[in-house]
UniProtKB/TrEMBL annotation:
Organism encoding this protein: Oceanisphaera arctica
Taxonomic lineage: Bacteria, Pseudomonadati, Pseudomonadota, Gammaproteobacteria, Aeromonadales
CDD domains: GATase1_AraC_ArgR_like
InterPro entries hit by this protein: Class_I_gatase-like (IPR029062), Homeodomain-like_sf (IPR009057), HTH_AraC (IPR018060), HTH_AraC-typ_CS (IPR018062), INH-QAR (IPR052158)
Domain HTH araC/xylS-type: 240-338
Superkingdom of this protein's organism: Bacteria
Pfam families associated with the record: HTH_18 (PF12833)
Protein name: Transcriptional regulator
Alphabetized GO MF terms: DNA-binding transcription factor activity; sequence-specific DNA binding
Record carries keyword Transcription regulation: yes
Amino acid sequence: MQASIPTGTAAISPAPVPPILHPDDDGVITVSFLLLPEYAMVSLLSAIEPLRIANRLAGRELYRWQCLSENGQAVVASNQMALQQHLDMHAVDTPRNLFVNASFHPERHQSRELIDWLRRLNRRDSLLGALDTGCYLLARAGLLKGHSITLHWEAVPAFQETYPDILISPELFEIGRNRITCAGGTAATDMMLHLIQQQSGTALALQICDQCIKNGIRPPSDRQRIGLPRQLNIHHPRLIRVLALMEQHLETPLTPAELASSAFISLRQLERLCRRYLAASPSAYYLKLRLERARQLLQETDLSVCEVGSACGFISASGFCRSYRRHFDMTPGEQRRRGAA
């Protein structure tokens, strides 16, 4: 009897591609996780738990998993905790399914040894994936060319500046040709449930959802984050349109008149809406968004102050520095030094 999808939950669409995970010679699928320092433990556990539950419900071993590190030593996660068992990536059989798990400061953990090892896996046709910001290492190794990828929304601006030629999607997870990327967090559970559905069937995937107190598998197209309108409790459709345009054009800012025209309202109407809902003029709120993006780039990238200013729509470095100091009570250089401390 076919399992039914609970009323009110997200329907699970038919798998668009054949099963992608590579089984071992005994038919069991081993999923390996390469842990980088400061990785997000929530992403790792969210990916592993569906595999464990799948084995329990099936009454047999369908999946295995292992955590790897560059030298076999314990890796401390961003929550300052470490798992007890890590395997040396050089001491295991060639992983057929590998996910790089990272989070904060992924650019600091890109050794030549790691890059060469990933390239060898690629030559052996291993499936290569990434959780959260693990795609930084894959990109550094040149293994994401021609692939659409996703990563945690907070890391997108810095990644775009570093790798402008790589196509980034806003999806929860992206599954392509021997590549899987995931935004991290609890989206790793949805990604793994989607893969289990492909490999082992919809009925088992739904049973795992029940065990996780989860009302269904989110589709990849679900939003990664709560949008600005919902954060600000704004429901006015014209202002929602303006806020979306502001977020989309931080590098090349639109004028208030252009924003108003795109939302099919007058400039005066736009100013009234912003004063009412945002307690600021359109220009002031737009500037705030651009400066917040600048602070993120200063903290998370090695871009120069001039490059950060340009990426956030400032024509001159002096104008950027003045605006930044006025808003944050420190210069961009001071911000960067504070972040590095």
